[in-house]
């Protein structure tokens, strides 16, 4: 199976764990790390709405907790059929551990639909070199 399909499968499986009673908008994400591992996550909402976090954030947290810091590819899927792009905050989080050519696979319920480079989603990104 090619990598983007594997990432879609992992993102889709992670979406099953979504805690999204407020938005009813389950999301799943899966990252491929430099070491070749896949880390997945779901969105986790909170009754105090701003405290919720996105699926990409959960997946990245799993990667960091496994001791890894490089994202090569990421897949994102939402249960509501239409393909979504990562929110602004998650683009920045992906940028923290990715590179301009990190691949972002946007999926619908059938699989990967469109692949974009991170630099297309977040041009002129703010990064550590600015500090
Ligand atoms: N959400 C994500 O998990 N990832 C995104 O990139 C966009 C939005 C979640 C946050 C919230 O739980 C729900 O989708 C509706 O905004």
Mean pLDDT: 97
Strand proportion: 25-35%
Summarize the main sheet. 5 strands, mixed
Count of beta strands? 5
Helix amount: 25-40%
Number of domains: 1
Total number of helical segments? 4
Shape: globular
CATH 2nd-level architecture:
3-Layer(aba) Sandwich
Radius of gyration: 14 Å
How do the strands of the widest beta sheet line up side by side? Answer: 2-1-3-4-5
CATH superfamily: Cytidine Deaminase, domain 2
Helix-strand string: HEEHEHEEH
**Oligomeric status:** single chain
CATH class: Alpha Beta
Q: What is the CATH topology?
A: Cytidine Deaminase, domain 2
Describe this structure in words.
The chain is of the alpha+beta class. It has a single domain (2-124), classed as 3-Layer(aba) Sandwich (Cytidine Deaminase, domain 2), CATH 3.40.140.10. It is built from 4 helices and 5 strands, in the order H-E-E-H-E-H-E-E-H. Strands 2-1-3-4-5 form a 5-stranded mixed beta sheet, with helices on both faces. Strand 3 (71-78), helix 3 and strand 4 (103-108) form a beta-alpha-beta unit. It is globular. The mean pLDDT is 97. Tetrahydrodeoxyuridine is lined by residues 20, 23, 25, 27, 43, 45, 52, 54-56, 84, 86-87, 90.
């Amino acid at each position: 199976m090619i990598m983007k399909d594997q990432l879609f499968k992992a993102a889709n499986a992670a979406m099953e764990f979504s805690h999204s009673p407020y938005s009813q908008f389950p999301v799943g994400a899966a990252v491929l790390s430099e070491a070749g591992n896949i880390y997945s996550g779901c969105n986790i909402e909170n009754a105090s709405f701003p405290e919720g976090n996105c699926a990409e954030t959960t997946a990245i947290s799993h990667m960091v907790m496994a001791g890894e810091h490089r994202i090569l590819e990421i897949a994102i899927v939402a249960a509501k059929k239409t393909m979504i792009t990562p929110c602004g905050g998650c683009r920045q989080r992906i940028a923290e551990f990715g590179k301009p050519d990190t691949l972002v696979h946007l999926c619908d319920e059938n699989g990967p639909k469109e692949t974009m480079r991170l630099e297309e989603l977040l041009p002129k990104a703010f990064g550590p070199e600015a500090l």
